[in-house]
Amino acid sequence: MKSRFALLLSFVMTSSLAAQDSRPSTLAGRSTVYAPRGAIATSQPLATAAGLAVLQRGGNAFDAAVTAAAVLNVVEPHMTGIGGDLFALFWSQREQQLRGLDASGRAGALMTREELLRRGHDRVPSSGAEAITVPGALSGWTVLLQRYGTITLADALAPAIRIAEEGFPVTPIIAGQWAAEVDKLSRDVGARATYLLDGQRAPRAGEWFRNPDLAATFRLIAEGGSGVFYGGELGRKVAEGVQALGGFLTVDDLASHIPALVEPLSVDFRGYRVWELPPSGQGIAALEMLRILEPYDLESMGHNSAAYLHHLIEAKKLAFADLARFIGDRDHMTVSPEDLLSDEFIERRRTLLDPSRAADRVGPGNAVTSSETIYLTAADKDGNMVSFINSIYSAFGSGVVIPGTGFALQNRGAGFTLEPNHPNTVAPGKHPFHTIIPAFVTRDLGNGQEPWLSFGVMGGSMQPQGHVQLLLNLLLFDMDLQEAVDAPRFRHLGGRRIVIESPVKGDVRRALEMMGHELADESTVSFGGGQAIMRLRRGWAAASDPRKDGMAAGH
User: Fold this and answer.
1) Could you read off the pLDDT of 175-232 as tens digits, one per residue?
2) Choosing from 80, 133, 142, 373, which is the catalytic residue?
3) Is pLDDT of 297 > 50?
4) H helix or E strand, kind and range, residue 319
5) 377 belongs to the catalytic site
6) Which of 168, 179, 248, 264 is the most buried (most CB within 10 A)?
7) How far apart, in whole angstroms, are the C-alpha atoms of residue 429 and residue 300?
8) Which residues, 6 or more positions from 84, have their beta carbon under 8 angstroms from its beta carbon?
9) Which domains does the chain have, with CATH numbers?
């Protein structure tokens, strides 16, 4: 036993150097983008180009973000669109304030636990009409433009309408992900007609794809405003179509939907203030991880050493146990977010982190899911910064496209539980637990905060883990922005099971296994895709994750 412990210590110490010497300086040979006036980073080049064109014409970051999001609905349809939800954190230079936007929808008026149980379900279905909740994204686009933008919704939709009508060549990573969903798309008449060529297969990389139905939908919205969806002609078509398939939406659910400006949550970390949105999202898990980790000398452990990764993994387990137990619609929570981030609570949780042994199952303190998502960020010449995330949850969401509309409806209802008396128990008019989270960082000027970093990492439960890893890369290991995005990541799956990207060396892996971690095959696991923009003393730095098809650009 003593010799085994000595060997373990040896592995931990010898793996304290960064395990990356076989990795190029950046994953795809990219450099950080530096720009004097403004920048945008998205997960698809056409969306980046559309947003950049808005900035170059004198539009602001809000205009560029919404324009890019609309284009992503066309070119990355399995991830995002007006059939999903939107969250944003943004710095308004005019207000000199960081604001939060929750444009997520609620369960339909007909969606009850009793009805789902009566239908024989032991959980909310992960696809099909029964999983559909009110889509909030379009309402969020509208609010951002009306309150903070300089262009109209019709202007913002124009590039997306053109690309949907004329078509575009599909990019490689998107093509591969699209192809994996052929069976799902084949089960729905509207999805099959909209997204499968000849109703049979997904477009291949470089192959041309058009979506004239989505172009027509966007034209309808451009002419009549978002009200055509929230209670108008388009909304009635969607609600009636969903109900005909056994779903729970009504036109009144759409008509009564209202996005909300919300107060973000934050914690201090090493002289910076890190911001996330409040529940029902999982951003609080990233903040709890940072609070648990703050006293540890992570720098001396070494980037992606066994000791370093172990501490991050164990902090993640503690935070996610609390997430699963306490987080849901904030109007139904019995524990406040402030309680979960309090000194007393964090200190109690930190005592459960064993520095040399992986925990198996971690219970919540005393006081869930996959996701297909786009994240983008934009900044402009005036100093506005937008951290923007838009998702339809699983790939192609519910897999339902109401014929003629051209967009997939989200399956966000799958985020609910049927467990009784839980803050996340399904109920009419209730927000489900959400995985999508934008992030933001400010720094103290002495007389207030200034914006510093707008960033996000996509991918379900990967998102809080990715936020923490990317941020520590910057704050503790002095990486430039693209290096911080590119650096190898871990992902904790559950119990002792973890995956680590292949550039992390064998001695680190062996040391983690000796601590009790179980390393799973990483080849089928997503490590997320991120974008980031950093404010410099003059100008901007921007980065886009090579794990996606995207790009960063500036002017």
Assistant:
1) 999 999 999 999 999 999 999 999 999 999 999 999 999 999 999 999 999 999 999 9
2) 373
3) yes
4) helix 306-326
5) no
6) 248
7) 49
8) 135, 136, 137, 390, 391, 392, 393, 397, 410, 412
9) 40-288+368-485+528-555 (3.60.20.40)
